[in-house]
Every structure is written in structure tokens, then in C-alpha cells.
Amino acid sequence: MKINNLTVIGAGNMGGSIVNGIIKSGYLPASSIFIGAPREATRMQFESKGVKAYEDDRQAAKQSDTIILAVKPSQTKMVMDIIRPELSEDKILISIVSGLYLDKLYDLSGKKSKVFRLMPNTAISIQESMTCIATNEKSEETISLVQELFDQLGKTIVIPEDMMSSATVLASCGTAYALRYARACMEGGIEMGFKADMAQFMTAQTIKGAAQMLLENGNHPEQEIDKVSTPKGITISGLNEMEHNGFSSSIIKGLISAYNKAEKK
Ligand SMILES: NC(=O)c1ccc[n+]([C@@H]2O[C@H](COP(=O)([O-])OP(=O)(O)OC[C@H]3O[C@@H](n4cnc5c(N)ncnc54)[C@H](OP(=O)(O)O)[C@@H]3O)[C@@H](O)[C@H]2O)c1
User: Fold this and answer.
1) E-state strands within the chain
2) Residues 108, 241: Cα–Cα separation, whole Å
3) What is the C-alpha to C-alpha distance for residues 24 and 18, in angstroms, rounded to an integer?
4) In which domain, by residue range, is 239 found?
5) Closest among 128, 131, 73, 64 to 104, alpha carbons compared
6) 93: CA distance to ligand 1 center in Å?
7) 155 and 190 assigned to the same domain
8) In angstroms, what is the span from residue 233 Cα to ligand 1's centroid?
9) Can you list the residues of the chain whose pLDDT is less than 70?
10) Whole-prediction pTM value?
11) What is the pLDDT of residue 265?
12) Which residues line ligand 1 (CB under 6 A)?
């Protein structure tokens, strides 16, 4: 079994990336994807790709068995009030709205649909998201369907809902933290003589390679660090200087600060 049609309500940064990524992956043809979008320019942009776009969210929701809610948190209630009549027990409702809990989503759906709360990250725009999935749904088959859909857009894991704040910090805010590390490397690279574009290219490829090694061989990062850390060498000198200045500690403190803020919201 697979998802045969898909409606995305809110074709902004995230919703638009989901539509584009699903088309690009070939998982669904554009003709099986529908969007609800208030702006004509957005509708025209997606219609030119073969997606059917509706100004009326209810009409858009009517077209599919799987609906993704990708509007801003402040727009959620209004949109749910509009699409609720089109929801039913056999429909899957996936929300990527930050901070929208499963219980609330289930209530907003009129206690009808199979609801999922997802946290993707912005690399969904290049089909490299880390997407965390929480649900109260019991059917493994339905969970697999949602996972398979988002596996087209990167990697997925299923987590308990009470881990959502941690997941948001590590895998969603984490993009910004990795990019800030990249920016720092670039600034160092420029001081050592590379032009900005060259420093950026070298930094990005180096980070990509390091991440790919962890993903492919599953080694602990320290195992890979040991391979490049010659005794009395250059790498360990740089690493120790970074640690003396609080490198690991500042990252952990930053993560915990963000987590505490996420938990308070
Ligand atoms: N950005 C992230 O890193 C990230 C990560 C995970 C989750 N999220 C969540 O994803 C959701 C979307 O974020 P985003 O960054 O994609 O925001 P966004 O770019 O502002 O997208 C929201 C879209 O919803 C549209 N919209 C507004 N009212 C609507 C309505 N009544 N019916 C249908 N569409 C409507 C907006 O259209 P107009 O532009 O025409 O108003 C816009 O295209 C948010 O809830 C956010 O919390 C974001």
C-alpha cells in the first residue's frame, strides 16, 4: 500500500518544499498533488508544475486521503475550521506546525482523522530533511505510509511526542547551529588566505564528508577524530585550543538553553 494522493495546505517554505520534493522524487505525479493557497501567484506557480491549486482549503482537502497542514501556528485554527468537514476516520492528517500537540490536533480535526505531528528541517528543500514523527496512531501500516512519504524528503524517525522539543532543538534548530559552525570556518579560512566562495565550498564539502562518514559507517565521532589527530600534531593543537575556549561546552549549553525555551512554550 502507498499514499495515492496528497493535499498540502500552506505552500510556503516548508509546504512548497514538500510538494516540490515529492514531485522530484517521482513518488507521486504532480497530478496527484493538491494545494490550498490563498495567493494567486502561489497557485499559478504550482499549477505550472501540474499541481491542482485551490483558493478554498476545503476544496483542496476534499481531493486527498492524506492532508499535510503546513501553515503558521497562528493560521492553524482558522484553517482547521475550514477543512474539518472534509476529514474522516480513514484520512491521514499530518501537521508540521511547530508546537501543535497531537491531542490539540486531534480535537481540531473533530476527533476524526489519524493524526501525525512531524518536525522536518529546512533541508527538506533539497530532500535531505531529518524528519521526526510522533503519533498516537496504533496501525503500523499507517505509520509506515507516513514514514515512506517523508523518506522521499530525507530521513525519518518515529519518536514519542514528549521527545518533540528535544528533536526540534537537535534536528531543526540544529541546521542553524551547523551553519553557524560553517560560517566560523569560513571566517577562519578567509583569514588564512582563501576567498569567501572558496572557503565556503571547502567548508561545506568538509562538513558533508564528515557527516556522511558518521551516517555510512556509524562510527563514534571520536573514532574518526583519532584518525586525523597525530600525537603532537596540528589537528589536536587546534582541537584542544577550541576546547580550552569552551567549544563542546558552549554547544551543549546552547542546546539545553534552546530546549528549555522550547519546553516553556
Ligand atoms: N521553517 C522551518 O524550519 C520549520 C521547521 C519545521 C516546522 N515548521 C512549521 O512549518 C509551518 C510553515 O512554516 P513555513 O516556514 O513554511 O512558513 P511560510 O513560508 O510562511 O508558509 C506558510 C504558508 O501558509 C500560507 N497560508 C496562509 N494562510 C493560509 C490559508 N488560509 N490557507 C492555506 N495556506 C495559507 C501562506 O501563504 P501566504 O504567503 O500567501 O500568506 C504561506 O505560503 C509553520 O507552522 C512552522 O512552525 C517550520
Assistant:
1) 6-9, 33-36, 52-54, 66-69, 92-95, 114-119, 129-135, 154-158
2) 52
3) 10
4) 167-264
5) 73
6) 16
7) no
8) 49
9) none
10) 0.95
11) 77
12) 9-15, 36-39, 42, 57, 70-73, 75, 79, 96-98, 119-122, 172
**CA distances to 76, 81, 98 from 105, in Å:** 9, 11, 12
Note whether 40 and 116 are same-domain residues: yes
CA–CA distance from 150 to each of 104, 119, 128, 224 (Å)?
A: 22, 11, 10, 30
Read off the pLDDT of residues 36-75 as tens digits, 9 standing for 90 and up: 999 999 999 999 999 999 999 999 999 999 999 999 999 9
Q: Are 144 and 2 in contact (CB under 8 A)?
A: no
CATH number for the domain spanning 251: value is: 1.10.3730.10
The reported pLDDT for the residue numbered 111 is 87
Probe target for ligand 1 pocket from 71, 98, 116, 124, with the most ligand atoms within 8 Å of CB: 71
**20/16 Cα distance (integer angstroms):** 6
Is 39 in the same domain as 105?
A: yes
Domain assignment present for residue 1? The answer is no
Mutation pick for ligand 1 pocket among 13, 77, 94 (CB with most ligand atoms within 8 Å): 13
